[in-house]
Amino acid sequence: MVYEVDPAASLVVAEVRRGGSLARFGHDHVVASRTVRGFMSPAQGRGDFYLPVAGLEVDDPALRDEARLDSRPSASDVAGTRSNMQDFVLESERHPFVLVHVDGADPAAEHTSIALSLRGVTRRIDAATRIQREGDRIVVTGRAAIDQTAFGIVPFAILGGAIAVRDRIDLRFRVVAVPLRPTPGARHAARATD
Q1: Per-residue pLDDT, 192
Q2: 101-130 residues labelled b (16+ CB within 10 A) or e (exposed)
Q3: pLDDT at position 187 over 60
Q4: In sequence order, what DSSP letters do the residues of 119-173 get, joined into one string?
Q5: Residue pLDDT, tens place only, 18-77
Q6: Burial group, residue 26, by CB count within 10 angstroms (0-12, 13-18, 19+)
Q7: What Cα–Cα distance (Å) separates residue 13 from each residue in 27, 42, 58, 160, 163?
C-alpha cells in the first residue's frame, strides 16, 4: 500500500545556531516546513518527499520556544534571514525544492539512512528515527544533523567571521502519511481497462 504525506500534520524544523567571537550580537534561528509532500511505501521501506523552499518559515515564535532559543530577532532580522536563506543559501530560484529519498527503512531499527538533496547536491545522512502506525496513519519522527559545507553551502558570516552561522544544523521532523486514496477518475479508468 502507498501512503501520501499529510502536510497539515507534518513538520520539519531546522535549528540554525550562531557562532563567532561576537556571537552574542547575532541570533539563532528556526527554519520550518509545514509543506512537506510526498509518498511512502512502508512495506518496501521506501519514501520520496519534497519541501518547497518558497514555503519555508523563519522564526515561528512557538518553534523558537520549543528550541529554547534565548535571543529575540526583530521583524527586520527575520525578513533579512529569510531573504538571505532563499536567495543565497538555498538559491531557491535554481533549486526550488529540498528532496528526501529513503530506502531500506526498517520500523524495528533506530536509525535510517536518508539521501538529502540541497541546492542540487545529494548527501547521505543518518537519522535517528521512530516509525509507528497510529490507526491507519504512518508517523515517522526523528532527528538528524547536517553540515552546510557538505552541500557546498558557505555558512553566512560577517566581520571576518566574528558573527557567523555555525556549519552544523540540527534537524527534527514529524512526517505523517495516510493511505493514498484513488481519485474517482483513476478508478473509472482502471475499470475501463479491465
Answers
A1: 46
A2: bbeebeeeeeebebebbbbeeeeebebebe
A3: no
A4: TTEEEEEEEEEEEEEETTEEEEEEEEEEEGGGGT----EEGGGTEEEEEEEEEEE
A5: 888 888 888 899 999 999 999 999 999 999 999 999 999 999 999 999 999 887 889 999
A6: buried
A7: 17, 23, 10, 28, 23
Domain ranges of the chain: 3-193
Q: Structurally, what CATH architecture does the domain formed by 3-193 represent?
A: Beta Barrel (2.40)
C-alpha cell at 173: 521532523
* C-beta separation of 3 from 44 below 8 A: no
Of the candidates 55, 73, 54, the residue with the CA atom closest to the CA atom of residue 16 = 73
Nearest to 141 by CA among 166, 116, 105: 105
Is 174 strand, coil or helix?
Answer: strand
How remote is the C-alpha of 194 from its chain's centroid?
Answer: 41
pTM: 0.88
